Amino acid sequence: MENYIKLETISLKDHPEINEKWVQQKIEEDPSILGLGNLSLRQSEKMQQTGGRLDILLQDDDGDSDTRYTVELQLGKTDETHIIRTIEYWDNERKRNQDYNYVAVIIAEDITNRFFNVISLFNGSIPIIAIKLTAIKIKDMIGLHFTTVLGLITHDEEEEAGEGADRAYWIKLGSEDTVKMADTLLSYINGFATGFELNYTKRYIGLSRNGMAGKNFVSFTPRKSKLKLVVKLEKNDEIDEIINGSDLNLLMYNNRRRQYRFALKQEDLSNSKEILVDLFKKAYESFPWK
After folding, report:
1. 104 CB contacts (<8 Å, ≥6 apart)?
2. Would you tell me the crossing angle of helices 237-244 and 273-286 to the nearest 10 degrees?
């Protein structure tokens, strides 16, 4: 016997009982239904200094834990005010707390070609994701299906062509103090392997040696009050034990890129100097160009 059921899609905007708040609550209860990974609810209905409220603020718990998503939901068709509100609230949040990366998420039941093209124009300069919401009725139950129709334009962290920047760029994006933290960590590296310099790109601060870039067994991303540190190392029990026994704030381990990622405070550079130097040495010795 063929198991088949015809799915009935319905418009929630025209529904007599279900409203936007109900859909928002379902997302807050289980943010994974958006299909953006392992997310958790950070805040709901967050008041904005420019007026209005951000529908949902989510945080990425599986990828970089310094990534947050500002989510704006609208039943029916998206329109100009929905797009403007999404970008405005994203901009407010990233200015409010510059220690995090923020991604704008716009959700609607209908994203027309016209507005899809408008949103696409922003993608690349503004990190924005567009998601189409479809409501499905099965007997007396309603299911929600979310489809990403416009994802982020991503760049490989190792691709540095056309990504030139300078020290002033990172002082403005981060702070003078956090850029100086990168200077200090560079001095730790040159303590056991001389000739390294900071290589400023628009995505991160890497390393160069004798004028040759791409020596990134470690890299740095200055924020306003913290420094994001990436150490390229194969994950193993010995390294995990070293890190777990320290006071370092490990954000995550990226299996695909084979990277440990940390968020460093100023005091970590002195309190955990020996551990940092040990990790740097291990990364240097295992780096493929050696």
Report:
1. 69, 70, 72, 86, 87, 89, 90, 126, 127, 128, 129
2. 160
Q: Is 167 helix (H, G, I), strand (E, B) or coil?
A: helix
If residue 219 lies in a helix (H) or strand (E), which one and from where to where? strand 218-222
Cα distance between residue 143 and residue 17, in whole Å:
15
Tens-digit pLDDT profile for residues 77-115: 998 899 999 999 999 998 888 777 899 999 999 988 888
- 51-58 average pLDDT score: 92
Give the model's confidence band at 29: pLDDT under 50 very low, under 70 low, under 90 confident, else very high. Answer: very high
Q: Which CATH number fits domain 8-150: 3.90.1010.10, 3.40.1350.10, 3.40.50.300, 3.30.1370.10?
A: 3.40.1350.10
Q: Is the entire prediction scored with pTM above 0.70?
A: no
Question: Which CATH number fits the domain 167-286, given the four candidates 3.90.1150, 2.60.98, 3.10.450, 3.90.1580?
Answer: 3.90.1150
* Residues in Cβ contact with 57 at an 8 Å cutoff, skipping those fewer than 6 apart: 41, 42, 43, 44, 46, 68, 69, 70, 71, 93
pLDDT at position 62: 60
- Top-confidence range, 93-107, 144-158, 160-174: 93-107
Give the CA distances from residue 9 to residues 109, 138, 144, 221, in Å, rounded to whole numbers and listed in that order: 11, 9, 10, 45
